[in-house]
Amino acid sequence: MTSASTSAPARREPELAGQTVVLIGGSAGIGLETARRARAEGAEVILTGRHRDRLHQAAQDVGAQRVAVFDASDPAAVQRFFHDLAGPIDHVLVTAGGPTYGPLLEMDAAQISEALSGHIVVALEVTRAAVPKMRPGGTLLFMGGTGGRRIAPGAGIVPAATDALPPFVAALALEIAPVRANLIAAGFVDTGLSASLLGDQLEARRQELRDTLPIGRVVGPADVAALAVHLMSNTALTGATYDIDGGQQFVS
Predict the structure, then answer these.
(1) β-bridge partners, 67
(2) Residues paired with residue 140 on neighbouring β-strands, in sequence order
(3) DSSP 76-143
(4) Rounded CA gap, 224 and 73, in Å?
(5) Do the Cβ atoms of 239 and 170 come closer than 8 Å?
(6) Domain boundaries, the chain
(7) What span, in angstroms and rounded, lies between the C-alpha atoms of 148 and 127?
(8) Which of 185, 206, 87 is closest to 138 using CA atoms?
(9) What is the pLDDT of residue 7?
(10) Which residues make Cβ contacts (< 8 Å) with residue 24, sequence separation at least 6?
(11) Superfamily of domain 20-244
(12) Distance between CA atoms of residues 250 and 182, nearest Å
């Protein structure tokens, strides 16, 4: 007579155990959700943002190691923040900033310059300040979009700004190796920012996406956070752009 034996499944080690993740724009939305996911995978997290009260509430929610209040578009503030960090860090996600929409001919030279270079300038300043503090194999993650790839009425300068990011991040990855650099290109993500932009049109937009996206649902910040943590933990990935829009670019 034989008896069947069962064994417990092997316990998975947290993917970011012993690592430190910095979230630039970590008080809400994708940044905060990525902080939550990183904590669940064993990382310590440091949150930054412009709004003190919201930042401290977010830090309490996720058990952040530290917070810092500053504007990511201020190079001196970025430099001070990273200079003052006590120990090495592993990963940085930058979610600060957003696209600038409007008719091209109604934008002045300063607005065009800011729309084209804003993300890249912030990314460069963060890179210069962060890389000396980063362990080899860590990654800098930047946010782009898939919707901006379409030339459409009202898109204005956005497609041009969107197209600049992938080659910029690829070139950056070669310069900062063995630290890595990657770009996340998201479509519509159901965040508080989306709600503030769409107002009473938000639910209609959600329903439209549920009806048309191949995945049959709306992409949320937790989806983007899962991708971000994967890019942090998989050290073979650098210099690439990763789309996450539920197939939106193919059906819009």
Answers:
(1) 47
(2) 92, 181
(3) HHHHHHHHH--S-EEEEEE-------S-GGGS-HHHHHHHHHHHHHHHHHHHHHHGGGEEEEEEEEEE
(4) 23
(5) yes
(6) 20-244
(7) 24
(8) 87
(9) 61
(10) 31, 48, 72, 92, 93, 94, 95, 96, 126
(11) NAD(P)-binding Rossmann-like Domain (3.40.50.720)
(12) 22
Residue with structure tokens 């930054």?
48
* CA neighbor of 239 nearest in space, from 171, 139, 170, 193: 170
Neighbours of 2 (CB within 10 A): 4
Q: What is the pTM of this model?
A: 0.90
- Which residue do the tokens 């630290």 mark? 179
Which residues are CB-contacts of 198 (< 8 A; sequence separation ≥ 6)? 205
Closest CA to 153 of 104, 94, 188: 104
Q: Is the pLDDT of residue 98 over 90?
A: no
Q: Could you report the per-residue pLDDT of 173-207, keeping only the tens digit for each?
A: 999 999 999 999 999 999 888 888 789 999 999 99
CA 153, distance to chain mean position in Å, is 27
- Give the DSSP H/E element, type plus range, for residue 183: strand 180-186
Q: How many residues does the chain have?
A: 252
Let me know if 83 is exposed, middle or buried by CB neighbors in 10 A (0-12, 13-18, 19+): exposed
- Sign (positive/negative) of CA torsion 31, 32, 38, 43? positive
